TrEMBL record:
It comes from the Eukaryota. This is B box-type domain-containing protein. It holds the Pfam family PLATZ. Residues 191-247 are annotated as: Disordered.
C-alpha cells in the first residue's frame, strides 16, 4: 500500500504515466506484430503505462487514452493538441512542424548556444525563446525534481463563460450587427439637409420645438440648404431680341 506522503510526491512530479511515456522505446518493430507491415511502435497508452504500441495493438486498448509519438530531427515529439488534454505543458517551448504545434519529450543538450541567445533551457542549456524555461517535458520534470515550487504538471480547471454565465466581452463583439447598422442609418438621416437655415423643413412644415433644436441648428449650420428648383421652360424670354422666321 502506498503511503499518502509517497502518493503526494508522485502527484507533484506529474501523473504516474509521465515517466513511462518519456522512457519508452519508440519506432522499433513490435514484439507481437513484427511480421506485419507498418508495425513500428509509435503509440503509448496512458492507462496501461506499459511499452510502446503499434497500430495493431490498439484493439486491446479500446476506450483507453492513447497518444501518438512522432519524430523530428531524430527526437521524439508529441502534438500539443493531444498531450495538453492530460498534462500542463506551460513553460515548455513548443514548435511548429508540418503545420502542427508539437513539444519534445526529452532533453536535447546544446553545449554551445548560438550567438545572441539570451535565454536557454534551465536543464540542458538548449537555446529558447524568452517566454519559455524548458525545451522538453523531461526538462520540466527535472526542474520539478529539484523542488521548483512554481511548477506543476497538473491541469488547472478552466471556468468557461457558458458554464458560469460570467465573463465579459467587448461592446463591439456583443452588439448585434442590425443595431449597429440602425445607428449608422439614423446618423445619416440626421446629417441630411432636410432642414433649411430659416427654421423650416423642405416639405412645407415648421420645425417643432424640442430638446433637440440645438443639435438640429448645428446640423443645419453645416449642411447647405436645398437650392430652389429652377424651371427653364417657364423662364421669361429676354426682351428686345426679335424672333423672326427664316427666309
Amino acid at each position: 500500500m502506498v503511503s499518502p506522503i509517497g502518493r503526494m510526491g508522485n502527484d507533484e512530479l506529474g501523473p504516474p504515466w509521465l515517466k513511462p511515456l518519456l522512457r519508452a522505446s519508440y519506432f522499433i518493430p513490435c514484439s507481437i506484430h513484427g511480421d506485419s507491415n507498418k508495425s513500428e511502435c509509435n503509440l503509448f497508452c496512458l492507462d496501461c503505462m506499459g511499452h510502446a504500441l503499434c497500430s495493431y495493438c490498439l484493439i486491446n486498448h479500446k476506450d483507453h487514452r492513447v497518444v501518438q509519438i512522432r519524430r523530428s530531427s531524430y527526437h521524439n515529439v508529441v502534438r500539443v493538441n493531444e498531450i495538453q488534454k492530460y498534462l500542463d505543458i506551460s513553460c515548455v517551448q513548443t514548435y511548429i512542424i508540418n503545420s502542427a504545434k508539437i513539444v519534445f519529450l526529452n532533453e536535447r543538450p546544446q553545449p554551445r548556444p548560438g550567438k545572441g541567445v539570451t535565454n536557454t533551457c534551465e536543464i540542458c542549456c538548449r537555446s529558447l525563446l524568452d517566454s519559455f524555461r524548458f525545451c522538453s517535458l523531461g526538462c520540466k520534470l527535472g526542474a520539478l525534481k529539484r523542488g521548483e515550487p512554481d511548477l506543476t504538471f497538473t491541469l488547472r480547471t478552466k471556468h468557461t463563460r457558458d458554464a458560469f454565465h460570467g465573463g465579459s466581452e467587448s461592446d463591439e463583439s456583443s452588439t448585434p450587427k442590425k443595431i449597429r447598422r440602425t445607428n449608422i442609418f439614423n446618423r445619416m438621416m440626421m446629417d441630411s439637409p432636410a432642414i433649411s437655415s430659416d427654421g423650416h423643413n423642405n416639405y412645407g412644415g415648421e420645425r417643432s420645438a424640442s430638446s433637440g433644436d440645438d443639435a438640429t441648428t448645428n446640423i443645419s449650420r453645416f449642411s447647405p440648404a436645398t437650392p430652389p428648383i429652377f424651371n427653364h421652360h417657364n423662364a421669361r424670354r429676354r426682351k428686345g431680341i426679335p424672333h423672326r422666321a427664316p427666309f
